[in-house]
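Below is how a single chain appears once it has passed through the pipeline. First comes the sequence as given, then the structure the pipeline wrote out for it. We keep one example in the README because the format questions we get most often are answered faster by looking than by reading.
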Amino acid sequence: MEKQIDVKSLLTIKVLRLLKPTLVGPLALACDPHDLPGDLWEKELNADVTSVTGIDALSLGNFLRLPQGFGNMYLGESFSSYVVVQNESQIMVTDASCKVELQTQTQKFVLANKKTVEEMKFGTTIDIVMNHEIKEMGKHMLIVTLSYTVPNIVPVEPIVLERYFKFQVKKPLDVKTKLYNAESDEVFLEAQVQNITSAPISLEKVDLEPSPAFNCSQLSESTIIDLVPRLVLKFNGKSQWPKKMLDVEDSFQYLYRLTPKLENSRLATNIGKLDIIWRTALGDRGRLQTSQLQRQPPMLNDLKLTVEEIPEICTVDSPFDLTIKLINTTQERNMDLLINLEDSVENYCWLGITKYKLGYLTGTSNADIKLSVFPIRTGLINISGIRITDTQKGEKFLFNDIAQVFVIQEA
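Resulting structure:
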């Protein structure tokens, strides 16, 4: 009796994820020579093939370990894979074609559509290398569809095989944001980026792409560089702040200041989105963008206060001047203003008259007021306790934390 041929097992499909190797170092354990282990751990460390002479205790090695499995897949990384179709039988097949698709929970992508190979003899292969940026979390399925025909078999119909390879895409970074609306119409964004992957990473870029209504400046790096210039590394004569290295579960905070471009931009609710680029220990790149950040529209008072002039640093027991501007934001309302500087403040006191009449402030007009402050303690002081009353309507406006001054001891 003639042996029946299983035409669906003539070609084999293999999928391999392309990953870089990982660094391997020794496990460095140390103890006092008088302890029970003595020098046993030191001898084991010196005998470890992965240890480097002279820096054994740093757990640094010069060996690389090849990937042992699929590994972890994170959102924003590039999924690189190698698909090989091989004829491992003695029977020749014809018109072989291979199609590779990636299916997520919401959509399907065609990663490769290999052209038809007319003849595949024993040992002939179809090799496909693919790269795709992962933009969704959750379950993913790699679908490999193979089509071919076997000659001398009646009827000659295409044989279609499908293989499924499932994997999970995880979240690489935990991003937390806080928004603060300042009295000066500026918006401050505090962003905390935490590494929740299984290995250390390097943050290459964390930028805020503002909406068209705002101009953006980052305060985290520029402020530190100005205050602590010795921490700045110099490469080729240029100052460059080092990249942030984040270990597992470590986090770093960023601060951004957004300034409205136009007067009507004060009520804009779209702030922008964060653009984050990181790299793994061996340089694999990942990119993550947040959705549009929203804020609650600020409550606009009829009277607005801004700080026009104030020193950043002053000495204790030495008075300094503070210039503020009062702005009537209404169109037709006239205000008869009375200022009262509260004496229940800490670390400083007001000089001069603390309660007096300012006069009339017509609609859309403004007035500059100069105040004197006497610091009595060192440290950071918050200027607060400015109460303005419209005597015509009896409406009161209280302004707290309008500015900060750093008070130092006189040298």
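Confidence is low (pLDDT under 50) at residues 222-242.

See the next section for the split statistics.
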